[in-house]
Specification:
The chain has 182 residues and is an alpha+beta fold. It has one domain. The chain is 40% helix and 15% strand. The protein is built from 7 helices and 5 strands. The protein starts with a helix and ends in a 5-residue tail after the last helix.
Length: 182
Amino acid sequence: MHAAALTSPGRLWSATEVLSLPGPVPRVAGVYGWHFEEPPHPSLPSGRLLYVGIAPRHMTSRTSTQNLRKRVRYHFRGNAYGSTLRLTLGCLLGLELRRVGSSGKRMTFTKAGEAVLSEWMAEHARVCWLEHPEPWTVEADLISRLDLPLNLDQNRHNAFHPRLTEIRAQARQRAREMPVTT
């Protein structure tokens, strides 16, 4: 049931739709799936589910403020430091990852790079979701059963995992070798 709702959803939503106000994404816990009309890497398929995520990450307290709306919207307009999906997409697209901020510990694609990534996602990424009161209870099952090449956590069995791990590690290493930027 969960897998089919994400792999063959009745509707996929664009950045424009998701970021509109009030927006279609509910403010509840759940699982979201990302489909790409054009894949971010030539060895990946187009037009299908490539990544799943959950919100909240895990209910460690009853006061969690994460929900589907906040998380999905953040992926469309946030930065690589706060979004593993954005980090992965930017690295695959060859954007330059940089250390930012006063400590230099955060890594993003800088303002210009994040804008390029947001534009690419607006053109090629589509999202769907499934409400679920405890999404962390279904995440591992979905990752183990589905071919999700953009998920790294719990996904070592995926054929693209070693390549994606290498691409992200190389981007981080290059960022460490460059000066911190604003």
